[in-house]
C-alpha cells in the first residue's frame, strides 16, 4: 500500500507541477518576448535575492511540518497535529514580518551595492509582501503533504500560476509598459499577488480539513516542545538552504562582473545571462518537475517505512526513484543534444540558443539524480550530511564560475561546465551519505540495458532530426521529444522482464 500511495501521490503532484510548470514556462516565453534577453537577465538578478530571504524565513518548513504531520496523523493524534500547525504559524509569521521590514528598509542598499543595478529597487520593494505570504503558505503545504492530501496544494499551485499570468499580462497591456524596469517590476507585483491568493486558498482548505479531525482526547505536548520538534528538522534544512541559496545568489550576481572582466559589455552580459539561465536552462530543467514531485512525497514516505521497520520497501523505493531520475535526465540530455537549435526556435523563436541548451543539458542526468537524493536524505533524517554536501558543492560551483566565466574563450559557457562538475560531485557525496543508512545496488544487467538503450536512442533521434522535413517543424520536434522520453518506459519494461527471467 505504501508503494501505491507513493506513486499515486507522486503522479498527482507531478501532474499539478507539470501544469504549473507549463504555465511558468509559457510565462518565461511571454516575458522573453516582452523584455528581450537583457530584461530576462535583469529579472534573473532579483530572483536569487527573493529566494535567499524566502529560504531564511521558511526554509525546511514544508519538510519539517510534513514529517510531523505524518507522524501525528498516522496515530490519529489530531490534537498535537493541529497545535503544531498553529504554533509553527505564529513563529513563522513573527519571523517573516521582521525579515520583511529588514528587506524593505535595505532594498536601496541591496540594489545599489549587492545587485549593482538600481533598476531592481522597485522589484525588491514589491516582493516584500510575498515573503510573508509564502512563509505562512509553507506551513499549510507541509500539513497537506503530511496527511497525504497532495491534491489541495497541487490545485492551488495551478490557480496561483494562472492568476499570475493573467495579472502580468493585464498590467503590461493596460499600462502599455515598454521599458525593462517597469516590466520587471510588474512581473514581481504579479508574484506577490499570486502568493497572497495561494495563502488565502490554503488557509480556507486547512480550516475545512481541520474540522474533520476532531475527537482526539489525547494529552497534547507544550507549544515549546512542539516548536522544538519542528525546528530540529527545519533548522538544519533552513541553514542548508540559506547557505546554498546565499552561495547560489552570489554565484548569479558575480556572473555579469566576471563576463565584463572577460571583455563583454555589461548589457551584452545581461543578454547572455538571459539566454543561458532564463531560456536555455528553463528548457533543459523543465522535466525536473517530475523529480521534485517525487522528492517532496519521498520524505514522509521514507519516514513511514522507517517507523514500520520496513527497510526492504525503503531500499526498493530509493533504487526506483534514483533510476527514474537518471533515465529522465538522460532522456532530456539526449533530446537537447540532438535538437538544441530546434528547441530554441520552437519555444523562444531564437536560433542562437542551441549551444547553451547543449552545454546545460550535459549536467541533466546528475542534477536530476541529485534532486532525488536530496529527498532521500531528508527522509532518512540525514540533514547534517545534506548540509555538508550542499556547502561543498555550492562553494565548488562558485569557485568554478569565478574562474571559468572570466576566461574570454569560455565566458558564459563556463556556467554549464560549472553545473556539470558540481552536479557530479553533489550526486557522489549524496550517494555516499545514503549508503551509510541504506543499501543501494544497481545490477550490472540493468546498467547494460540502460546504457544500450541510451546509445540506441541517441542515434534514433539523430536520424529522425535529419530525415523529417522542417516543413512540419512543430510536428517533427514533438515526435522527437516523445521518442526521447520513451527511454524511461522501455527501460522499465526490459528491466522488469529481465528480473522475471532471472527469478
Describe this entry's structure for a reader.
It is globular, with a radius of gyration of 23 Å. Helices cover 85% and strands 0% of the residues. The model has no long low-confidence stretch (mean pLDDT 84). It contains 17 helices and no strands. The chain is mainly α and 503 residues long. The protein starts with a helix and ends with a helix. Helix 2 (61-74) packs parallel to helix 5 and helix 14 (383-405) packs antiparallel against helix 15.
Structure keywords:
503 residues, mainly alpha, globular
Quick summary of this structure?
The protein is 85% helix and 0% strand. It has helices at 2-58, 61-74, 78-114, 121-126, 128-146, 151-174, 180-210, 223-261, 266-284, 288-307, 311-348, 354-361, 364-379, 383-405, 413-435, 444-467, 473-502. The mean pLDDT is 84.
Largest sheet: none
Separate helix tally: 17
Which word captures the global form?
Answer: globular
Beta strands, count: 0
Structural class based on helices, strands and sheet pairing:
mainly alpha
What is the assembly state of the chains in this entry? single chain
Q: Whole-Å distance between the termini?
A: 23 Å
Please, what is the average pLDDT? 84
Radius of gyration: 23 Å
Indicate the percent of residues in helices. Answer: over 70%
User: How much strand content do the residues show?
Assistant: under 5%
Amino acid at each position: 500500500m505504501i508503494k501505491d500511495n507513493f506513486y499515486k501521490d507522486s503522479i498527482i503532484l507531478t501532474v499539478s507541477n507539470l501544469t504549473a510548470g507549463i504555465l511558468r514556462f509559457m510565462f518565461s516565453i511571454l516575458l522573453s518576448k516582452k523584455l528581450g534577453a537583457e530584461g530576462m537577465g535583469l529579472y534573473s538578478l532579483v530572483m536569487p535575492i527573493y529566494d535567499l530571504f524566502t529560504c531564511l524565513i521558511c526554509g525546511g518548513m514544508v519538510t519539517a511540518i510534513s514529517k510531523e504531520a505524518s507522524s501525528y496523523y498516522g496515530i490519529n493524534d489530531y490534537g498535537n497535529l493541529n497545535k503544531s500547525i498553529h504554533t509553527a504559524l505564529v513563529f513563522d509569521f513573527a519571523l517573516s514580518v521582521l525579515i520583511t521590514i529588514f528587506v524593505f528598509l535595505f532594498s536601496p542598499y541591496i540594489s545599489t551595492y549587492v545587485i549593482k543595478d538600481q533598476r531592481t529597487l522597485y522589484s525588491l520593494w514589491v516582493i516584500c509582501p510575498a515573503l510573508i505570504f509564502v512563509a505562512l503558505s509553507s506551513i499549510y503545504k507541509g500539513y497537506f503533504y503530511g496527511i497525504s492530501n497532495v491534491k489541495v496544494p497541487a490545485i492551488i499551485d495551478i490557480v496561483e500560476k494562472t492568476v499570475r499570468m493573467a495579472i502580468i499580462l493585464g498590467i503590461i497591456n493596460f499600462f502599455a509598459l515598454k521599458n525593462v524596469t517597469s516590466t520587471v517590476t510588474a512581473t514581481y507585483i504579479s508574484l506577490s499577488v499570486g502568493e497572497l491568493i495561494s495563502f488565502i486558498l490554503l488557509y480556507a482548505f486547512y480550516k475545512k480539513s481541520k474540522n474533520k479531525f476532531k475527537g482526539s482526547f489525547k494529552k497534547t505536548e507544550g507549544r515549546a516542545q512542539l516548536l522544538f520538534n519542528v525546528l530540529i528538522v527545519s533548522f538544519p534544512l533552513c541553514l542548508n538552504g540559506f547557505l546554498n541559496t546565499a552561495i547560489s545568489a552570489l554565484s548569479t550576481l558575480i556572473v555579469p562582473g566576471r563576463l565584463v572582466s572577460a571583455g563583454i559589455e555589461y548589457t551584452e552580459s545581461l543578454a547572455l545571462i538571459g539566454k543561458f539561465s532564463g531560456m536555455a536552462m528553463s528548457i533543459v530543467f523543465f522535466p525536473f518537475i517530475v523529480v521534485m514531485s517525487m522528492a517532496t512525497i519521498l520524505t514522509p514516505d521514507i519516514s513511514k517505512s522507517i517507523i514500520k521497520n520496513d527497510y526492504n520497501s525503503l531500499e526498493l523505493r530509493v533504487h526506483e526513484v534514483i533510476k527514474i531520475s537518471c533515465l529522465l535526465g538522460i532522456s532530456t540530455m539526449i533530446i537537447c543534444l540532438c535538437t538544441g537549435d530546434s528547441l530554441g526556435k520552437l519555444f523562444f523563436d531564437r536560433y542562437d540558443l542551441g549551444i547553451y541548451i547543449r552545454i546545460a543539458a550535459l549536467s541533466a542526468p546528475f542534477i536530476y539524480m541529485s534532486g532525488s537524493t536530496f529527498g532521500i536524505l531528508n527522509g532518512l533524517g540525514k540533514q547534517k550530511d545534506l548540509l555538508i554536501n550542499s556547502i561543498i558543492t555550492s562553494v565548488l560551483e562558485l569557485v568554478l564560475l569565478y574562474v571559468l566565466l572570466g576566461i574570454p574563450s569560455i565566458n558564459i559557457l563556463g556556467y554549464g561546465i560549472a553545473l556539470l562538475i558540481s552536479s557530479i560531485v553533489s550526486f557522489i557525496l549524496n550517494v555516499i551519505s545514503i549508503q551509510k543508512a541504506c543499501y543501494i545496488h544497481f545490477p550490472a544487467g540493468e546498467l547494460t540495458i540502460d546504457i544500450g538503450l541510451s546509445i540506441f536512442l541517441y542515434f534514433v533521434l539523430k536520424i529522425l532530426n535529419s530525415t523529417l522535413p522542417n516543413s512540419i517543424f512543430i510536428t517533427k520536434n514533438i515526435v522527437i521529444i516523445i521518442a526521447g522520453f520513451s527511454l524511461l518506459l522501455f527501460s522499465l519494461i526490459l528491466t522488469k522482464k529481465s528480473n522475471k527471467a532471472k527469478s
